[in-house]
Prior knowledge:
By secondary structure, the protein is α/β, with parallel strands linked by helices. It has 13 helices and ten strands. It has helices at residues 19-24, 26-39, 43-49, 52-56, 58-75, 91-98, 104-124, 137-145, 168-180, 201-212, 235-244, 252-261, 275-283; strands at residues 2-7, 84-87, 127-133, 151-158, 161-167, 185-188, 223-224, 231-232, 264-270, 288-292. Strand 9 (264-270), helix 13 (275-283) and strand 10 (288-292) form a beta-alpha-beta unit. Helix 7 packs antiparallel against helix 10. The model has no long low-confidence stretch (mean pLDDT 96).
Amino acid sequence: MKRAYVFPGQGAQFVGMGKDLYETSPLAKEMFEKANEILGFRITDLMFDGTDEDLRQTKVTQPAIFLHSVILAKTLGDDFKPDMTAGHSLGEFSALVAAGALSFEDGLKLVYKRALAMQKACEQNPSTMAAILALADEKVEEICAGIDDVVVPANYNCPGQIVISGSMKGIETACEQMKAAGAKRALPLKVGGAFHSPLMEPAKVELSEAIEATQISKPLCPVYQNVSTVGETEPEVIKANLVAQLTAPVKWTQSVQNMIADGATEFIELGPGSVLQGLVSKIDKSVAVSGKQ
């Protein structure tokens, strides 16, 4: 009987996120104010009272979701007893801070650098992503490999749901071919660029220096990383996987399957939304899922 805490990535944001925490917990208020100071702008104003448009900017979205997730974990105090943690894409940084591998301050600085670097890479290479539903993983991989433009599997979210990432033309061609191959849907997503694809290489180069210069400690419990899909505890391995993550696919299905194989019977999502609860249930209906916002 093991408890796994999981942390959401980009797309889970909503206006008003974290406001209850700020208003009811002195610790949360102190951490949010510290974040405003570190970032140099009042991200709390955008989170609590901004617009959807404000929150959709990558440079706001990523730190906002990170803050909501991590501060929520910290306010649980002694009730937060993970046997393992994992996060989806950006959520991996939240998982590492929650597990004690990264300090709150360093985690926030890295997330903000990551967000700015990714935004810059998106502006250099206009690109996008699309969700492919009800098509075998192998078929999705085969179609992507056969297209001349940049297009790769980016998120293995759950069986029958893969997100692909690439150039505008590559994604358009891939969507047509996926539908022709029997996909139930091939749905272009409203995102700023091709995350987890080779088009994020400029961001990877920029972020790798920051990650290398950051102190990462041995976590209190294994952190199942998107790139390796297994429970990691060695700081140098954790660093290498964090760097690789920007251009590599998020192997969420495989990570959750490995957590269950290692004894996880309960998954608790910490942070905005409930996307991961839905994905975990689709990966394995036998485990208990819940969430806190």
